[in-house]
Prior knowledge:
Oligomer: single chain
Helix content: 40-55%
Strand content: 5-15%
Amino acid sequence: xxxxxxxxxxxxxxxxxxxxxxxxxxxxxxxxxxxxxxxxxxxxxxxxxxxxxxxxxxxxxxxxxxxxxxxxxxxxxxxxxxxxxxxxxxxxxxxxxxxxxxxxxxxxxxxxxxxxxxxxxxxxxxxxxxxxxxxxxxxxxxxxxxxxxxxxxxxxxxxxxxx
Length: 163
């Protein structure tokens, strides 16, 4: 009998959000800080930790996930979760940010095709792990390779370069 895998945190280097370029880089003003990331929280984090994805692919996955979450928020708001106003019409809940996010996702769908977009959406947007989507090792390896190709396409499309 096999038990469930424990969530393992990992220590990674990230850009310091409080770094001030006005002051010299020092121990008190570091450009990069260490952060603890739960590898089971987002499947892309665990793929990157195991060396499957490179930094540009992770940056593209992060940008895709941001657009996905903004678009999903707009979708939920448009299904009646917003207040109705006395004029009888619905309030304008779609912001420019939502329109831009939906536009980014449409570009992705055109660039990757239906199958590629669905794989990226399931893994990067919805957060499914590849091992949860595909039962056999061969299918998982193929899906990982295809995911790498599609994320490289998105990184090229968006001119995403990791810092």
